[in-house]
Design a protein that fits this description.
The protein has 821 residues and is of the alpha+beta class. The protein is built from 33 helices and nine strands.
Length: 821
């Protein structure tokens, strides 16, 4: 019995010391005390105790005496680590080092500080940004008819292009001292989100010049001469930029750029100067067909050593006027009939002076680092913003449509199958918007959140795809027939574009989120990797030993926390916020500890092969991503002042995210190559099994009602959405119909009651309202209201049709038609 008590005490002590992150010396003292207690229990005559004390003394000496530990433990492990560490190319290394670690680091720690999350300032638009949204952005939305843009013009109308230039849309990120608007990341994001609720072509045309491209690169790396020349012209719309990175042989693997620039001497403006002779073949370049200045990425080579360094200088970026001799530009791609300008650009033996390299001679070969650092921030704004806009529009329009559309004398919103889709639409729209605002706020705090930007880009675009798919299902035939009244068709058609650009989603999920996060966000791995590259052996061993000791404590702490919180139902995990949400914070703390432990086990047991186990890496990334999205939802709800009406949405989003996180982690355990390691992971992460269900049907029904009824929730969801209250606008008439619906339903109830009482027998059709007026059941104003509502309702559910001749415009050109015949 005494021995059992000792074993329990030993396990509890070890668990406690690991859980609180006790230093090594304290753990050694505790182990000695436990061994002493065992000695007392065993009595003086037990010979084996002497052997135990000797073994303990040897282990304690090796672990606590730094020179011994370094030579006997750290040195062999350092040799092993160097052997199993996968080779990291220069471009990979630059990508890993780009950007900053933000809230993702807290999640990776296994013990997130929730006070820190809510200590970040609530992101807010300035008065100037708000005025721009309500003025020029509202005006631009009003002049953009998506059917005219996408079907008739296949481009923005000339007056829209002129308005975009004159109002400074192309210079939102350019500081005021250069003539730009100088907007915050949140302001820039809000403009993109609102435009996305009107037309994809207008969104992309404004988004791209303010994303990764010449302006962003010049701001961070350009010379003073380059900034003074180009930025004012870009801000005023005198120049239209594009940036050429991808090509036939370099898509997702953009670091393998085959386009070259050879350092040489050549003639420029009648003088012989040092420069680069460029050859390139690029495609998928947005705005290329109409660009006046081309940003170009290429690999610079210096075979004659004219710059005094190596022959292969690395990826370099240059800014080239589109009118420069040899630049081929102007042809178009048609990405899923997207009407924004996108096309190829080519050039062969095009000579440019070295001054055209962004940043000048000193920045030759630094292009990939420049791109990765800018992408870390830019990717956090553009596509999450357009995805948020599309998702919110779909939620508002679909909620209203489902409410005014009836079948079997019942609004389709009341059918449970439709309710299920509406709940997903509303929940995903809320989560995307929460992630957009929180991440843009991080950029405004000075962060360049590389891992977070990958998370938000992937999950915002994927959830937007789910929203659009669900919205199309609810709309049925209304959604699949294109025409002036279809507000979903083009978004549905073009959603794969957002999935593909700025890092294809399959690549982002399976290689970047966890692959980059495991190194960037982990508190010790980067230090261990840095030690392997240290040229001084003594310093390398010293730094590796310190990192290894910290890493071991980190792993033990997360194992103990995950197991403890799993056994106790996370009742003692760190909580925060209102009582209704506290358990979510606690479950997230538990999942964070389990995730951090699983990440360490994966890196320890798989080593360099983890880089090739993309499905395992993807599931680990999914866990991290869902924890980030849940954090964003909690932050949004707090920043909005905890409005009670939003609670069903918040509960749905959190249950959905935590369920997905747990399922992803369970997938890691189920598919882990080492079954022994999988058993350890299962015990640590799920000692009592899986415990986080998906949102319930009852909760989904409550969420669906929030977007099918006018009220404060729909009002908050409509921020940065273009919603004209016009009877003749496809989306506006839905808004009007939903606002009229309570009064209409009250009047209809009055008429039904009168009919039941025998006071009103109506013929149906247009005569019905006249008969009701004649019977004294409706006033003239009330009859007019019902008539107006019916006109709007019929228009809202109507499907566009065209004369037979319109099909000629959709047929193949005559030569192709003859070939087909």
């Amino acid at each position: 019995m005494n021995l059992i008590a000792w074993i329990v005490a030993a396990v509890a002590t070890g668990w406690l010391l690991a859980g609180v992150g006790a230093p090594l010396w304290l753990a050694t003292v505790a182990a000695a005390a436990l061994l002493g207690a065992l000695q007392v229990l065993a009595g003086p005559g037990v010979v084996a105790m002497g052997a135990l004390w000797v073994a303990f003394a040897l282990v304690a000496a090796v672990l606590n005496v730094a020179p011994l530990r370094r030579n006997l433990v750290a040195a062999p492990l350092l040799r092993w680590f160097r052997r199993v560490l996968p080779p990291v190319s220069r471009t990979e290394q630059e990508a890993l080092e780009a950007g900053t670690v933000w809230w993702d680091g807290e999640l990776f720690s296994g013990a997130p500080n929730w006070r820190r999350l809510h200590g970040f300032p609530a992101p807010a638009l300035s008065a100037e940004e708000r005025a721009f949204l309500e003025g020029p952005v509202e005006a631009l939305c009003a002049m953009l008819d998506d059917w005219r843009v996408s079907h008739e013009l296949n481009d923005l109308p000339p007056e829209a292009w002129r308005f975009i230039r004159e109002q400074g849309f192309l210079g939102m990120i350019i500081p005021k001292r250069y003539g730009g608007l100088g907007f915050s990341a949140l302001g820039h994001s809000a403009v993109v989100a609102k435009l996305a609720t009107r037309t994809p072509a207008g969104t992309v045309s404004v988004m791209v010049p303010n994303s990764l491209g010449p302006a962003e690169l010049l701001l961070h790396y350009g010379t003073d001469v380059q900034k003074d020349h180009w930025l004012p012209r870009l801000a005023r719309g005198l120049e239209l930029p594009c940036f050429a990175l991808t090509g036939p042989e370099a898509g997702s693997d953009a670091g393998s750029i085959p386009d070259t620039g050879v350092v040489c001497r050549g003639l420029h403006e009648g003088r012989e100067v040092l420069g680069l002779r460029l050859t390139w073949n690029k495609r998928y370049i947005t705005l290329a067909p109409v660009a006046t200045v081309l940003g170009l990425a290429f690999r610079a080579r210096d075979p004659q050593r004219l710059l005094g360094g190596e022959e292969d200088l690395g990826i370099t970026l240059a800014l080239i006027p589109a009118s420069h001799p040899g630049v081929q530009i102007g042809r178009r791609h048609m990405p899923l009939n997207g009407s924004f300008m996108n096309g190829p650009t080519r050039g062969t033996d095009v000579f440019i002076p070295l001054d055209w390299v962004i940043g000048g001679r000193e920045r030759v070969g630094q292009g990939w680092r420049m791109l990765m650092e800018c992408l870390a921030a830019g990717r956090a704004v553009s596509l999450p913003s357009s995805s948020a806009g599309v998702a919110k529009l779909a939620a508002l329009a679909t909620g209203a449509y489902a409410r005014v559309r009836t079948q079997f004398r019942t609004p389709v919103a009341r059918f449970e199958g439709v309710e299920e889709a509406l709940a997903r639409i509303a929940g995903n729209a809320y989560a995307i918007e929460a992630a957009r605002v929180m991440t843009a706020g991080a950029v405004d705090l000075g962060e360049k959140p590389a891992v977070v930007s990958a998370i938000v880009k992937y999950h915002a675009t994927e959830r937007a795809r789910q929203v659009i798919n669900d919205a199309m299902d609810v709309h049925g035939g209304k959604g699949i027939c294109l025409g002036p009244g279809n507000y979903l068709g083009r978004a549905y058609q073009q959603v794969p574009i957002a999935i593909t650009v700025e890092g294809a989603n399959i690549l982002t999920r399976s290689m970047i989120i966890f692959g980059q996060g495991a190194i960037r966000c982990h508190p010790w791995v980067r230090r261990e990797m840095a030690a392997t590259r240290e040229s001084d052996p003594a310093r390398a061993l010293r730094e590796f030993d310190a990192a290894l000791l910290g890493h071991a404590g980190f792993t033990a702490r997360n194992f103990a926390r995950a197991l403890f919180h799993g056994v106790t139902g996370a009742r003692f995990a760190a909580g925060h916020g209102p009582a209704a949400l506290r358990r979510y914070y606690r479950e997230m703390s538990r999942l964070c500890a389990a995730f951090a432990f699983a990440a360490d086990v994966a890196m320890l047991t798989l080593g360099g092969s983890l880089k090739r186990r993309e499905k395992l890496s993807a599931r680990l990334g999914d866990t991290l991503s869902q924890l980030y999205l849940a954090s964003a939802v909690l932050k949004r709800f707090a920043d909005d002042g905890h409005p009670p009406a939003d609670l069903p949405l918040v509960h749905w989003c959190l249950r959905d995210a935590l369920h997905r996180a747990e399922q992803a982690l369970a997938g890691v355990v189920a598919n882990f190559p080492s079954r022994l390691a999988a058993l350890v992971l299962r015990v640590a992460a799920f000692p009592l099994g899986l415990r986080l269900p998906a949102p319930s049907d009852r909760l989904g029904a409550a969420v669906a009602r929030l977007i099918t009824e006018a009220g404060e929730v729909r009002e908050r969801l409509s921020r940065e959405v273009f919603l004209p209250a016009l009877d003749d606008d496809p989306v506006g008439r839905l808004r009007v119909a939903l606002e009229l619906l309570p009064a209409v339903e009250a009047l209809e109830a009055r008429l039904r009651q009168a009919a039941r009482e025998g006071r009103f027998v109506h013929p149906g059709g247009p005569e019905r309202l006249c008969a009701a007026q004649a019977a004294g059941l409706l006033s003239a104003e009330e009859a007019a209201l019902l008539a107006r509502f019916e006109r709007i309702r019929i228009a809202a559910i109507a499907v566009d049709d065209f004369p037979h001749e319109v099909g000629r415009a959709l047929r193949a050109p005559e030569p192709l038609a003859r070939v087909a015949a």
